[in-house]
Amino acid sequence: MAQRYGQEVPAAATRTLRPTxxxxxxxxxxPVRRGGGDPCMRLWADECWRATRTPDGPATLHLRQIGGExxxxxxxxxxxx
Length: 81
Hints:
two-stranded antiparallel ribbon, 6% helix, mainly beta, single chain, 5-stranded antiparallel sheet
């Protein structure tokens, strides 16, 4: 664990997805967004930031599409969920 302001901060949970078919990240996630002004989600063609609540607590998720892979990183108490 890293330290910030004298407190331990857990490392980001990461996962890589390798879709078997072509994936349009923005088109896949757009229906989940609550309008263009959704304060919990920022969406671009190949990248998404999302704040959410999980059963384990709040989490921030960052998805990036790089080539044929989608890299996901999450932080917060709900990152593992």
